[in-house]
Specification:
2 copies of one chain form a homodimer. Chain A has 29 helices and 14 strands. With 787 residues, the first copy, chain A, is mainly alpha-helical. Chain A has a domain of 237 residues: Roll (CBS-domain). In chain A, a hairpin with a 2-residue loop joins strand 1 and strand 2. At the A-B interface, helix 1, helix 2, helix 9, helix 10 and helix 18 of A face helix 1, helix 2, helix 9, helix 10 and helix 18 of B. Chains A, B: Pfam families: CBS (PF00571), Voltage_CLC (PF00654). Chains A, B: This is Chloride channel protein. Chains A, B: Its main location: membrane.
Chain lengths: 787, 787
């Protein structure tokens, strides 16, 4: 019973082995009432995933409330004052998350605008003196250095800071803990790296990293500081659990989006639609509060910068693409170009997803070779980017300035403005330089600019579109903090504006609005969000009249995109191997029961309520599981129960077993402990920690013969399913309630039947793992019609 | 075993009776390891609730997928074409919901604006001729008649059409089916009644009813038409289940909000924040689509009406309160008045909730007395309203028109405009008449009007505020379709504007914006929504710059309101007795297990896999339950199992038992049926219907001795919990997964123990019911500190 839990299905499993080799038999040939033949395979459940650019061991999070005696005691002993403390802290932390995210976003914006600004001023200076080569060397050199700083920091100190971080946050909120995602080092590298990478003119944005930064701040605040220097403040102890941390990180993510786009409602909706897995009305409200704080901070900062205190930052400020002054008038016929934009966005978006997937796989191969390879890859991309941005404007012809414009407006001599002189004579401007030789934010602002129907030539826009397609594909995977929003906006706005030029004679809609719609369509085609993108664009463009056509474009683009492949974040999640559980179970999951899944797993290891130390040590050493069902046979006979009755006590987490060994909470005889004994030894706070490796625990031979009363540590209320439950419905339960372990109970009731048939985890319920153990389901997947 | 399921806890239950009378013993004095003493009470689970103004029997909905053999067969046999049909229908229905809601909203707006418009024109006509009494009689008479039409329709044909309908929709989406909520009669009465009630000048809005109308349309479309004239179209059969209907009704509700406020994003968020219980990303998207359709329809209609084809409808159109032309500039000091508005909104909102609760209880007493009482109540309210609206403006003094305004603007002679002449001489206007003697929409538009700092006197605003406080309390409960949004907006805008006047010298914010903020604060204080209200106000006022202060006001008002009482919708839900399950379990629910709940319920009634007809008839007659666990003892011995082993087969719904009896699917001997036998008799479509009353079924004595094979009808995958599960966690499961029945399994494993200990339903998990059976929990509720 102890070593090998009693399984009633021994006969069946014998049967299974017999038929193991005739896998080709039609699994559907059985009668409906006979269980399908079991495959003699095991569920592979390797908890490994790409974290940053490294393969790491990942763990699941405990979002379920671990209702053991200690928890209940602590919970009962919480006074009203403590409950108020908790609520107060919750709101204070939400406030601090908003405040700090707002401040750091301000800092990043200031740094980028100033670094990139002075860089461009110097370059313009060289060009004015016609010292083109020196200008090129300076431009390339500065970009090279900035990229190097960003990459070295990322590669050396925090590989998890590379990329946008949004997929990992999404996975975290789904219940997957990727190590080192939310540490202080990661935060620091992400901030500096983001400033470096964006200032270096690489084709990436600060939006994704800001989401990660917001989440990092939230996580650090919730934990009371970085890993090794935590504040042990009593009030913070309430937040030392995965559930409250999850809520905080949701706040952080939406604050990040809000800071990136200055779109508070859009930020909240982004968290809701794209990032979060669970959502409560109360959380909606708190997230909204954090976002409001961010907006107030950003507003105050912009107010301050208006007076010129922020160096080169000023003018347009943070509202990237304000088109509120345009009177939008459109008619029924305008539906057609709008629909065309939507379709193009969907097709290009899914094509982008497809190609980016290929590039990322290639990059993974390169990145795996070592740190130096990562650095070289980044630097090559930087050199290529610099060369393109500087060199391509020479291809464009000079356009004479519109005579109605004053000299100070066209050509522009400084950094800002729509009409860059570049290599052109006085009175002329180079439209491609206006788009390329500037920060990405300014490029977007220029291409979104309205009432400028003749400013950009089709030829320039084609070059712009082409180069940003190439850069967008090859920049994303390098080891620097990089966001996906901006590259996609740049690409989308280019083809939107081209379409606007083409439609010119037939439409009333401004070219700038076409560019906005193009950007929206490509976002929807690649990221597959609707409501949140709609609101973000609403808040970005500050023009409510655009709402109906934006909605239309987004709906069409998403629909078209969904015909081809999943969203970019899902692709990245899959590529990284993060075990994200999707909201909807696959249809074929109705054809298989959890009992069948459990049968192909190694037998479940159970413990007894009062267990020998040697057995615990053995279990910890020999099994990698993180949860063990605790089952008692009728040691203390119960009234009304027959002899040999067994009882399901609950579920025990590995970390608590390690805790017991570490604290050496051993008994000399096999007995139950009293409440005071437990409370003397353990605080509730101990339960929330993750207690490292088993190897660190030394147990003497003498202690091996002693006993441990596990009862007070058992989660007495684990969620369970009966073995006849279909995997589809079990998955719904697993995800909706946020489980880490799900116990499978027998459908038979008899003495001698083990009260637990097995235990299922996140990995066991992943479609890919099930399909590899039950290939016949794969066959039925293709054609649903099977009778 | 058949008559009384074997309960292992017989000894315990004996024990229970022994201690039944010492209820006063401290329930916490036991050791932690002993179960708390059971109370010898039963869980009262009366499925009765106020539906409209009548007490009716309510049922729960089956949102869980009933995975029985028939479902599985049907599901497996669905071809790809059928899956595409389903997806196509889903989107078509979402489109139709949007289209029809948009059209009906158009119709309602047209009707109201024209009826009320001609009424006011005639009244103005009488007043101009100084025939004040005739004017009063005409005004009161028309209002009286319109109210009578609305009330008679409501009382006579569809009592469920009274009120806003939002609480019932909220309950439906939570899993409670209130009868006759979504029928064709209800829809019709709601439309006509809403037109009548709003045209009658009663203090109520068309917003709530539009939400109900949208949901009715969705439900009717999904079911293929009204109850008795359903279209039996094959494609529609996929929607004949509670799950798909739920999604459709969510679409309908958000379309309704969208139509009411022309706020598509706000509509979606309203559904999400306030109405829906479950939410998926895919649904978010479809809801958004419906809302987009509504907006397009409304826009097209307004475009058409601009040319004057819609009678008196025109001008302002549907955008009720467009303040987009105001340049909002505010500074740090403006935070103070804004915070004050928020606090006032919170206090007044919760006070309004409190008083409305009292009024509604009083009205319930009146309404219970019969139809004629309801009618009289409505008519009295109508007379009082008419008298106030007509009489009070005489109290206001005449104000001379601003000389800068032309004669056509001030005083206004027609229906619209800000300066009603009323009883004043030429060149003067009556500001109170401007606010009162007009439609509610126009009143809001007037009071929101900006750049009019001297137009309204404080005295007039005080009267306006006072009268609408009284009307707002006493109008809502009468038997006509009535929305809560507008009365609250009217009240809130009044005190907002008053505060604006008071703050005049110290602030830059326009009085009109103060009115908007006041309305928002009272909404948040009463309805306790944040994000959706924020977006609705954003879309209403068409001014993004207002966003930060709106957020601030909403957050403060909600926080203050939450200190006093729950939201108005929760109060109404509670008042109506609808068993709404809240997202968060009560804290004391951790102290009680489902096993304890089950123990105070009558013993669970189980069936066998192959059951005698007489037993089925008996069970149906003697127990009101809607679900029965099916348990088999080892008739067909299983390898590896001891004798006497029992098996949990699943859960059978009452409706399917009735179906079996109706179809007379009886066997002569006790045997299992083959798949083809089942398929011959039942279609999957049959399973979705709700099969009426047991009384309709006649079974002969001969048939009584026959058998039924229940296996194909059993839901083999019910969600289960072990009896040691805490009620708090069971409730989370129940609500998150959307259950109707939850089986409770024993924690002991032994021959002779029943495989099912009990069954829990929505009613059993309601806090109120649990507290009445376990009063000691109530005591612990107050003071959480108990050790």
């Amino acid at each position: 019973m102890e070593q090998e839990p009693c399984k009633y299905a021994e006969a069946t499993s014998h049967n299974k082995e017999e038929h193991a080799d005739d896998e080709e038999r039609d699994p559907e040939s059985n009668s409906l009432y006979q269980p399908l033949l079991k495959r003699n395979r095991t569920l592979s459940s390797s908890p490994l995933a790409m974290v940053g650019a490294k393969v790491s061991h990942i763990e699941s999070l405990d979002y379920e409330i671990n209702e053991n005696d200690l928890f209940k005691q602590d919970w009962r002993s919480r006074s009203k004052v403590q409950v108020l403390q908790y609520i107060f802290m919750k709101w204070t932390l939400a406030f601090l998350v908003g405040l700090l995210t707002g401040l750091i976003a301000t800092l990043i914006n200031l740094a980028i605008e100033n670094i990139a600004g002075y860089k461009f001023l110097a370059v313009v200076n060289y060009i004015e003196k016609e010292r083109y080569l020196v200008g090129f060397i300076f431009f390339t050199g500065v970009n090279f250095l900035l990229t190097m700083v960003a990459t070295v920091l990322c590669v050396r100190f925090a590989p998890t800071a590379a990329g946008p971080g949004i997929p990992e946050i999404k996975a975290y909120l789904n219940g997957v803990d990727t190590p080192n995602m939310f540490g202080a080092t990661t935060l620091f590298v992400k901030i500096i790296g983001s400033i470096g990478a964006v200032s270096a003119g690489l084709d990436l944005g600060k939006e994704g990293p800001l989401v990660h930064i917001g989440s990092c701040i939230a996580s650090l605040l919730g934990q009371g500081g970085p890993e090794n220097h935590r504040v042990k403040w009593r009030w913070l102890r309430y937040f030392n659990n995965d559930r409250d941390l999850r809520d905080l990180i949701t706040c952080g993510a939406s604050s990040g989006v809000c800071a990136a786009f200055r779109a508070p409602v859009g930020g909240v909706l982004f968290s809701l639609e794209e990032v979060a897995t669970w959502w409560r009305s109360a959380l909606l409200w708190r997230t909204f509060f954090s976002s409001a704080v961010v907006v107030v901070v950003l507003r105050a900062f912009m107010e301050y910068c208006k007076s010129g205190n922020c160096g080169l930052f000023g003018g347009g400020g943070l509202i990237m693409f304000d088109v509120s002054d345009v009177s939008v008038s459109y008619h029924a016929v305008d539906i057609i170009p709008v629909a065309v934009i939507g379709v193009i966005g969907g097709v290009l978006g899914s094509l982008y997803n497809y190609l980016l997937h290929k590039v990322l796989r290639l990059y993974n191969l390169i990145n795996e070779k070592g740190k130096i390879h990562k650095l070289i890859l980044s630097l090559i991309v930087s050199l290529f980017t610099s060369a393109c941005l500087y060199g391509l404007p020479f291809l464009a012809s000079c356009t004479p300035c519109d005579p109605s414009l004053t000299d100070s407006v066209c050509p522009t001599s400084g950094r800002m403005g729509n009409f860059k002189q570049f290599n052109c004579p006085k009175g002329y401007y180079n439209d491609l330089a206006t788009l390329l030789l500037t920060t990405n934010d300014d490029a977007v602002r220029n291409i979104f600019s309205t009432k400028t129907p003749t400013e950009f030539h089709t030829f320039s826009l084609i070059i712009f579109f082409g180069i940003y397609c190439i850069l967008g594909l090859f920049t994303f995977g390098i080891a620097v903090p990089s966001g996906l929003f901006l590259p996609i906006i740049l690409m989308g706005s280019a083809y939107g504006r081209m379409l606007g030029i083409a439609m010119g004679p037939y439409t009333n809609i401004d070219q700038g609005l076409y560019a906005v719609l193009g950007a929206a369509s490509l976002m929807a085609g690649s990221m597959r969000m609707t409501v949140s993108l709609c609101v973000i664009f609403l808040e970005l463009t500050n023009n409510l009249l655009l709402l109906p056509i934006t909605m239309l474009v987004l709906l069409i683009a998403k629909t078209v995109g969904d015909c081809f492949n999943p969203s970019i974040y899902e692709i990245i999640l899959d590529l990284k191997g993060l075990p994200f559980l999707d909201a909807n179970p696959e249809p074929w999951m109705r054809n298989i029961t959890v009992g069948e899944l459990v049968d192909v797993k190694p037998a479940v290891v159970t413990l007894r309520g009062v267990e020998k130390v040697s057995r615990i040590v053995e279990v910890l050493h020999n099994t990698p599981h993180n949860g063990f069902p605790v089952v008692d046979d009728g040691l203390i006979p119960h009234v009304g129960l027959p002899d040999g009755a067994t009882e399901l006590l609950g579920l025990l987490l590995r970390t608590h077993l390690v805790l017991v060994l570490k604290k050496k909470w051993f008994l000399n005889e096999r007995r139950r402990t009293e409440e005071w004994e437990v409370r003397e030894k353990f605080a509730w706070v101990d339960m929330a920690e993750r207690w490292g490796k088993t190897e660190e625990v030394a147990v003497t031979n003498e202690e091996m013969e002693m006993y441990v009363d596990l009862h007070p540590l058992i989660n007495t209320t684990p969620y369970t399913v009966v073995e006849s439950m279909s995997v589809a419905k079990a998955l719904v339960l697993f995800r909706q309630v946020g489980l880490r372990h799900m116990l499978v109970l027998p459908k038979y009731q008899a003495t001698g039947v083990s009260p637990v048939v097995g235990i299922l985890t996140r990995q066991d319920l992943r479609a890919h793992n099930i399909l590899s153990a039950f290939p016949h389901l794969e066959r039925s997947k293709g054609s649903k019609k099977r009778h």
